[in-house]
Inverse folding.
């Protein structure tokens, strides 16, 4: 398989930054307002809002204008696969919807591009805390929908990377946290139900770090890439949750390990086991694989320390 020209990757990276940034603005307009909520499951555990759909519609239209021959896969039932397309844009228009609905500014937009299953470009937009508070829970229920005037500049945290180009927060290069193991004062992130099904053995049995669970996969991936979280574990994320974030971590000198039957192996592609059919949109939409990210030392340490909890 031939490599994509770096000039094209640079163009796609700049475009992904623009996409994530503007989609973040769309979300901020709705943050802290009363939104109609629909649910994608009968247990009412997977909400979707007007903000999700508006963000995804903007992303779809922008990509189709700029790259009409590229494919698109989005969380909200979006799948476009032009014949013979090599590049697939994978979109999460709003990750952390429950946080968003409750006025917690821990959510994000994820824009990733795959080259025949391999992440090659990624951008994640997260709300800047001060901006989110202006639009957020302090004004919920007042009917104002926010205090931002037209044209007011909004700052966002934009994480971005391209294959071979390093990872950045804005214009600042970022790197995963160094070290051979977490200190007691270092933050790590685990799924909320992690200790119901798993436990740590080995070196992490006594000291695994200070655990957080934020409710947003893209937030946790971005902040692992810049070293805020020493490592992160995800129980079964979907492709749109991680398509951009995996690249961010790897370009930030980190490692991404996925569970392959009973072992953990380095992530290289969403093309599972080299089978081309897993690259079609149906196969990619169904992709759900446990994931560990962090520095190479941290990821391998976590992988060697996880034990399944025995049922009583």
């Amino acid at each position: 398989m031939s490599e994509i020209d770096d000039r094209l990757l640079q163009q796609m990276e700049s475009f992904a930054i623009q996409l994530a940034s503007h989609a973040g603005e769309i979300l901020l307009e709705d943050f802290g307002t009363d939104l109609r909520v629909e649910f994608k499951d009968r247990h009412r555990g997977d909400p979707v809002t007007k903000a999700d759909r508006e963000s995804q519609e903007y992303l779809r239209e922008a990509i189709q204008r700029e790259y009409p021959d590229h494919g698109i896969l989005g969380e909200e039932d979006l799948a476009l696969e032009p014949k013979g397309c090599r590049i697939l844009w994978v979109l999460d228009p709003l990750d952390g919807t429950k946080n968003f609905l409750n006025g917690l500014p821990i959510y994000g937009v994820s824009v990733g591009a795959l080259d025949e299953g391999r992440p090659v470009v990624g951008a994640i937009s997260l709300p800047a805390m001060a901006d989110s508070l202006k639009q957020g829970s302090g004004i919920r229920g007042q009917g104002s929908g926010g205090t931002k005037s037209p044209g007011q500049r909004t700052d966002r945290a934009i994480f971005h990377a391209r294959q071979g180009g390093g990872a950045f927060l804005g214009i600042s290069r970022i790197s995963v946290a160094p070290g051979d193991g977490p200190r007691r004062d270092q933050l790590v992130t685990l799924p909320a139900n992690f200790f119901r099904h798993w436990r740590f053995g080995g070196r992490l049995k006594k000291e695994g770090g200070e655990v957080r669970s934020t409710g947003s996969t893209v937030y946790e991936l971005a902040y692992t890439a810049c070293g805020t979280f020493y490592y992160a574990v995800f129980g079964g994320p979907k492709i749109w949750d991680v398509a951009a974030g995996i690249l961010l971590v790897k370009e930030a000198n980190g490692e991404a390990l996925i569970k392959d039957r009973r072992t953990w192996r380095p992530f290289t592609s969403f093309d599972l086991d080299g089978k081309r059919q897993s690259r079609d949109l149906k196969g990619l939409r169904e992709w759900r694989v446990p994931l560990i990210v962090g520095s190479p030392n941290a990821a391998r340490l976590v992988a060697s320390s996880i034990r399944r909890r025995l049922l009583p």
